[in-house]
Amino acid sequence: MHPTLDPAFYYLANFQKALAWLTGHHADLLAADEQAFMTAFQTLPVVSQALLVRLIMRKGPHFRLSKLQYPEIGCCTAAAEPLLAAGWLSTQTPLEIETLCKLLRKEEVLANFAEQLDSTRASKSQALAMLVEQYPEPRPFADWCPDANEQVLSLTIEALCERLRLMFFGNLRQDWSEFILADLGILRYEPVAFSQGTRALACRQDVEDYLYLQRCREAFETGQPLDSVLDALAACQTSSTYVAERRAKLLFRVGQQLEREPRLEAALAVYQACGYAAARPRQVRVLERAGHYREAYTLACTLLAAPHNEAEVQALQPAITRLQRQLGLSAATRRRRNEAENRIDLSLPRHENCRVEFAVQAHLDEPLAPAHYVENSLICSLFGLLCWPAIFAPLPGAFFHPFQSGPADLLSADFHSRRAALFDSCLAQLDSDAYQHSIRQTYTEKFATQSPFVYWGALSENLLDQALLCIPAEHLRAWFRRLLTDIAANRSGMPDLIQFYPAQRRYRMIEVKGPGDRLQDNQRRWLAFCAEHGMPVDVCYVQWAAGAEQAEA
After folding, report:
1. In this predicted structure, which of 96-100, 123-127, 354-358, 480-484 has the lowest mean pLDDT?
2. Whether the Cβ atoms of residue 300 and residue 319 lie closer than 8 Å to each other
């Protein structure tokens, strides 16, 4: 914070830090108008800087001046004058009738348009419906409400601020509130040494390509014609791997929508061109739906010979069986692997607002055999605590601003291979009791620090102690290795409950299924993995029966 800046302007100090960061790390990416804004911003009175930052951080871009009340700023009318003179705010921005009605209270809408509305008892939405057809053209606020003792300030630099935010965070998902949450201690981030020159967007063209792709995404999500979205995406030929990965994912989503319509030929073309891993088995499915069984079968066999991951194998194997049947081919006999050694059937009284997993957890829980609802949280957290140094290693391209909860390449295909030696070092601690000390130490030192794996809210010291006592190191090693093979797919689908038997230093996991529920694909993969490695896992099927005698597990 600037030495003369009052602590009440903490949000302004944070914004100034962001601008300084951009100057120091992204100066060559900045366009002339962005550089001019950053220079001119520093010359404004503090209260004007503060007001602008307040508006940038609020949901806008239109604000009633009378509603802006900030004690540290004082008179917002005076604070706004330099911003109006700079053109960063405007009182003359034309407003659509829908926007105007959002700014006005119901009684103000009815009073201002009394002659146009049939009834003063109309709701605000009814009034808007009547006014939309009468007023198709936007107007400045003063033209809409000439008698109002009011001004509406419109932020005119939203696009510029969006570009600055993108360059700082490397994405448009995060916003400036990250600073505030960090200042208040609500969010903590691991301090990482940034590699020289490391950033998400390497050149100005990458910035423009990302923004262009964002407009394509918005067009898709607002229901614009798919053909126009595809034409726009075809024009987005980026040299940035970072942007290209997001383009591939968006193309995949477009392909899914084409498949739903169904426009199978178009969907197939998109899947073939997008380069997104999940598109490979979808090609097989589309060919099958289109009746091209021989082509689908050939492709499925080719993909299965070199699958990307277990999920792909799981999708392709039943497709091949179906296609063999369609083509009259003899199917190879495949031994069905038992997904769980034991099955539990329970009949439990139903409790309102109680999830079935918690009902089973309460039924099984005993003083000498505590049961916990953990789902994906426990194993992922133990992995995250043990492998913290590898996950947060300052590799090029992994970290490029101070507000990252994890490395940017977390879901990339080479995430593990780039850090193989680091992960091997972390997992080597499982050869002795060293891993228990490391996990506990990281839990204490890093508590509540953001991580893509550690579920702080679900991980108590008591649960941690029970897990380290009862789960063998070899089971942890197997789980952690499997996580590293495919983080995106394998950090979900784990059994819902875990029950510990501290006296025997053993445990069991329980996957819970309520009435009518069935195992999902990722859950089947985890159950098969546990059975293969001798990990105790049961599947509990629950039926609700009020007052019925409860079966014993």
Report:
1. 123-127
2. yes
CATH superfamily of 197-327: Tetratricopeptide repeat domain (1.25.40.10)
Q: Which residues contact 348 (CB under 8 A, 6 or more apart)?
A: 359, 360, 363, 542, 543, 544, 545, 548, 550
- What is the C-alpha separation between 70 and 47, in angstroms, rounded? 10
User: Tokens standing for 135?
Assistant: 């007023």
CB 480 within 8 A of CB 472: no
pLDDT, position 120: 63
- In angstroms, the first-to-last Cα distance of the chain is 60
b/e sequence 368-394, b meaning 16+ C-beta within 10 Å: ebbbbbbbbbbbbbbbbbbbbebbbbe
For residue 251, list its beta bridge partners. Answer: none
What's the maximum distance between 2 C-alpha atoms anywhere in the chain?
Answer: 83
Specify the residue for token string 């405007």: 90
Helices marked H in 222-368? 226-234, 241-260, 264-274, 279-289, 293-305, 310-327, 356-364
Distance of CA 82 to the CA centre of its chain: 38
CB 249 within 8 A of CB 233: no
Q: Which strand (E) or helix (H) includes residue 373?
A: strand 371-373
Domain boundaries, the chain: 7-169, 197-327, 342-544
**Phi and psi at residue 514, in whole multiples of 5°?**
-80, 180
Angle between helices 461-470 and 434-445 (to 10 degrees): 170
> What token pair was written down for 8?
């009440």
What secondary structure, in 3-state letters, does 101-148 show? HHHCCHHHHHHHCCCCCCCCCCCHHHHHHHHHHHCCCCECHHHHCCCC
What does the pLDDT read at residue 184? 61
Contacts of 248 (CB under 8 A, 6+ apart): 274, 275, 276
- Cα separation, 285 vs 300, in Å, equals 9
Contact in structure between 350 and 505 (CB atoms under 8 Å): no
CA gap 378, 380 in Å, rounded = 6
Q: What percent of the chain has pLDDT over 70?
A: 94
State both tokens at 380.
């992922």
Instruction: Write the DSSP string, 476-536.
Output: HHHHHHHHHH-HHHHTS---SEEEEETTTTEEEEEEEE-TT----HHHHHHHHHHHHTT--
What is the rounded CA–CA span in Å between residue 166 and residue 243? 12
pLDDT band at 549 (very low <50, low <70, confident <90, very high): very low
Identify any residues that bridge with 449 across adjacent strands, giving them in sequence order: 188
Tokens representing 156 are: 């005119």
Cα angle for residues 234, 236, 239 (degrees, 5° grid): 125
Q: Are 348 and 549 in contact (CB under 8 A)?
A: no
- Per-residue tokens: 191: 């301090």
